[in-house]
Amino acid sequence: MRELELELTAPEQIGEAVAVVREGEPVRIDLRLESLHDGILVTADVRTTARGECVRCLDPVELPVRVDIQELFGYSVDEALDYQVRDDHVDLEPVVRDAVVLSLPFQPVCRPDCAGLDPETGEKLAPGTTPQQREVMDPRWAALEGFEADTTTDDPGTASAQ
Question: pTM value?
Answer without folding.
Answer: 0.69
